[in-house]
Amino acid sequence: MTEPNPSYFVVGTDTDVGKTVASLMLMRFLIKTGHSPYYWKPVQTGCLSPNEAGADASFVLKYCPEVQQTAADATGACFNAPKAPFYAARDEQSSIEVEDLLHKLAYLRKNNTLVVEAAGGLLVPFSRTHMLADMVQLAVERFGIKPILVARAGLGTINHTLLSIEALHHRGVQPAGIVFVNNKEHRTPQAMLQENMEAISTFSNYSVCGCIPHIEDFTCPPEEAITLFEKIAG
């Protein structure tokens, strides 16, 4: 039976691996399959406001006109410095209260199909006492949110992906799926892409669901970038 309000936590092996692009494609997939997804970024660093063009919520919502949200509604906390969340907050004499974010997550989870996008990699400091992976663990245990691990397609991804899977397993969490993202500057040769997928499958027993190719026009992304999420939702 299909879950009425499936919810996902998009996490990454590192910063700038393509979590926001993957979140957008997941939103597009959920819309295509009849859901009304709600996008939420608990913590955004590296911008002054969620309404900035470079903010993740602004980017995702720009290409999901069906979703009736504002960037401010879609963002929990926003800090200017492009740093790990704990240190970006500390620079502004502030702090991130993980339980407050989880309380908000519980509220959103009740009636929404959620796409929650993490900040940075799994082992970045999120607060004085929690890494991001700890918040993911709590979100899985309390609300049944499924983590999707996003990784670069190219060189180095075997190590980063396997270490990230170990970090999740250490907390009793299994990824619902693994997604690669390619980019324009460092497009991965097909042979290396297949080798990376093979290595991850061999040493973790998780298959990579697919690779989101470089997208020139986000108003009309390639179908393969959207349909690869069928392997996770199914």
SS element count, helices: 9
Number of domains: 1
CATH class assignment = Alpha Beta
Binned strand content: 15-25%
Oligomer: single chain
Low-confidence stretches: none
Secondary-structure arrangement, i.e. CATH architecture: 3-Layer(aba) Sandwich
Pathway: Cofactor biosynthesis; biotin biosynthesis; biotin from 7,8-diaminononanoate: step 1/2
Organism: Halodesulfovibrio spirochaetisodalis
EC number: 6.3.3.3
GO cellular component, one term: cytosol
Descriptive terms for the model:
single chain; 234 residues; Rossmann fold; seven-stranded parallel beta sheet; magnesium; DTB_synth_BioD; magnesium ion binding; dethiobiotin synthase activity; metal-binding
What does this structure look like?
It is globular and about 50 Å long. It has helices at residues 19-32, 56-62, 85-91, 98-111, 132-143, 157-170, 190-204, 223-227, 230-233; strands spanning 8-12, 37-45, 75-79, 113-121, 146-152, 177-181, 208-212. It has a 7-stranded parallel sheet, sandwiched between helices. The mean pLDDT is 94. The protein is α/β, with parallel strands linked by helices and 234 residues long. Helix 1 (19-32) packs parallel to helix 2, helix 4 runs parallel beside helix 5 and helix 6 (157-170) packs parallel to helix 7. It is built from 9 helices and 7 strands, in the order βαβαβααβαβαβαβαα. Helix 6 links the parallel strand 5 (146-152) and strand 6. It has a single domain, classed as P-loop containing nucleotide triphosphate hydrolases (Rossmann fold, 3-Layer(aba) Sandwich), CATH 3.40.50.300.
